[in-house]
Amino acid sequence: MSRPLTAIFGLAVAAAAAAPLLRDATHDSYPFSTYPMFARVLHQPQLTFAEGVTGSGQARRLPPEMVVNDEPMQAMRTLKLTANAGRRALKQLCAAIAARVAAAPIYADVRRVRIARARFDPLRYFEPDSGPQGQEREQLVECRVRRAR
C-alpha cells in the first residue's frame, strides 16, 4: 500500500475510534462504545418489580423465578419491556406470575400479584435497616392469584 493511502487509512481508524466523543453519552454502538452505564450519574434509577400481596395487605417482593426464571437481570428486563409494551402485556405477565405463585407453597399467603414501578436509592437499597423503599411509586397492574380448591 502506498504511503498516502496508509496515512489516510490510519487517520480514518483514529477518527472512528474518537467518534464516540462526538455522540450523545447515552448512545451505545459496538465496537465503539461510549459506555453509557458509566457516562451519566443515576442517582435514583427507576425499577419495575413484581410483588405479592398477602391477605392482610402486606407486600412481599417476588424473586426472579416467579417472574420468568432464576436470572435477576432477565427478570428485570422482562418486567421493564413488558411495562413499556402496555397494559395488555402487563396483564398477561401478571397472570403468568400469579400462576407460578399459586403453584409455590411458600407463597400460600399471597392473594394478589402487583407489578409496580418506583425510584430507588441504590445505596440505601442494600442497607439492612432501611430496605428497598421506593419513591414515586406507580402501580402498573394487579391480578388475583387463583388456586385450585
Summarize this structure as a short list of keywords or feature phrases.
149 residues, 2 domains, 40% helix, four-stranded antiparallel β-sheet, alpha+beta, elongated
Low-confidence stretches: none
| Intertermini distance | 80 Å
What general form does the structure show?
elongated
Give the mean pLDDT.
83
The helicity comes to 25-40%
The strand line-up of the biggest sheet is 2-1-3-4
| Structural class by SSE content | alpha+beta
β-strand percent reads 15-25%
Total domains: 2
Report on the architecture of this protein.
- With 149 residues, this protein is α+β, with helices and mostly antiparallel strands.
- The longest helix is centred in the middle third of the chain and has 17 residues, at 87-103.
- It has 6 helices and 4 strands, in the order H-H-E-E-H-H-H-E-H-E.
- It folds into 2 domains: 3-32; 46-144, no CATH class.
- The model has no long low-confidence stretch (mean pLDDT 83).
- Helices cover 40% and strands 21% of the residues.
- Strands 2-1-3-4 form a 4-stranded antiparallel sheet.
Write the layout of secondary structure elements.
Blueprint: H1 3-18, H2 36-39, E1 46-54, E2 59-61, H3 64-67, H4 72-85, H5 87-103, E3 110-119, H6 122-125, E4 135-144
Helix pairs in contact: 4-5
In short:
By secondary structure, the chain is of the alpha+beta class.
